[in-house]
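User: I'm preparing a small set of examples for a lab meeting where we compare how different chains pack in three dimensions. I only have the primary sequence for this one, and I'd like the structure in token form so I can line it up with the others. Please keep the answer compact; I'll paste it straight into my notes.
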Amino acid sequence: SGFNEFSFGPDKNGTKMYYDHSDVRNPQNIPSPYTSSDTNETPIATNLLTWRGFYIPAIQINLPGYFNNTTTNTPTTVLAEKLIFDGGLSGNVSVNNILAIRDGSLDSWYFSIDQFKIDLWKSSFKSSSLNGKIVLPLSHDYANTSNQLDYSCTLSKPANQDLGFSFVITPKADLAFDIFWAKSRLTNGTNITIQKRGGQDFL
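Assistant: Understood. Below is the structure token output for the 203-residue chain.
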């Protein structure tokens, strides 16, 4: 499928998916036609009775293991709705408030996932992102909002490579923390970048 880092399964309601191989009717409530966020892409003709393919009203997606809930030691999951499989997997998913900061660990850095987005078209990434909060390892009190920094993360999937991540963290003005028994300070405008390219650890 090209998405080995993700796993898919039934949602909590056990919603069924449909294989349409009929010219009499199409699955109920399927978007018709099925369009991409990229206006240059030709819509998939789900509005025609002759359309053939899979329609997935709802499915659970487990995010890659890097984003597991470390408190419960379980995968972090999102609900995706109205996906189709026709020449590959297509769909647009946007979910908020997925992982609390106390439950996330980015290689020992506390972090949250406040928003997850992924836009797929025929199994190709159009765009994908995470947004949330992160706490530097030297800021000991993760629950203190003054220690929580905003981050944005883009996900990439080059052909024949593992999923890559690039986090950009923007510190608050004059963020102070302890290092080597002294007070250090990150000034406004400083950026911190963390990357994980296919097959590599976070940098």
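A couple of notes for your slides: The longest strand covers residues 124-135. The chain has no helices and 14 strands.

User: Perfect, thanks.
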